[in-house]
UniProtKB/TrEMBL annotation:
This is RidA family protein. InterPro entries: Endoribo_LPSP/chorism_mut-like (IPR013813), RutC-like_sf (IPR035959). Residues 9-147 form the Endoribonuclease L-PSP/chorismate mutase-like domain. Pfam families: YjgF_endoribonc. SUPFAM superfamilies: YjgF-like (SSF55298).
């Protein structure tokens, strides 16, 4: 990895995990035209599942932000693998944030800030994006958060 974004990651002391292989019948990233569609990334660090459980039960909103950030690191790893260089990212267009939460938990937007803040840290203004943040009954493998992304690239 080299370039401006690699230097930014080093400056921020951000390490990317290995891009995870799909666990079912899909591909991690689809490149079409000048857009990359990144499949939902969960709370896994180099094959080890993290943040298993629900927000409002096992985890607080602050811990949920850490989980969402981990999903964002996995998005960056998938983009690095698909594009070869994160400097090719022109804009983070949209993030979909799914939060495994108890019925009474309503801080999904705060949880989603974990991944949103990461994208702005890494890409600056190009990291500012549209976003959905929704609470769901359950996520695959009972992870706390899953995030998918649409990114414009050069």
């Amino acid at each position: 990895m080299s370039g401006k974004i690699a230097a930014k990651l080093a400056e921020l002391k951000i390490e990317l995990p290995q891009a995870a292989a799909p666990v079912a019948n899909y591909v991690p990233v689809v490149l079409t035209g000048n857009q990359a569609f990144v499949a939902g990334q969960v709370t896994v660090w180099n094959g080890e599942r993290k943040f298993i459980g629900k927000l409002g039960k096992e985890y607080t909103a602050d811990e949920g932000q850490q989980a969402a950030r981990l999903c964002g690191l996995n998005i960056l790893a998938q983009l690095q693998a698909a594009l070869g260089d994160l400097d090719r990212v022109k804009r983070v267009v949209k993030l979909g944030v799914f939060v495994n939460s108890m019925a009474e938990f309503s801080e999904q937007p705060k949880v989603a800030n974990g991944v949103s803040d990461l994208m702005v840290e890494v890409f600056g203004d190009a990291g500012k994006h549209a976003r959905s943040a929704v609470g769901v009954n359950v996520l695959p493998l009972n992870v706390a958060v899953e995030v998918d992304a649409i990114v414009e690239f050069a």
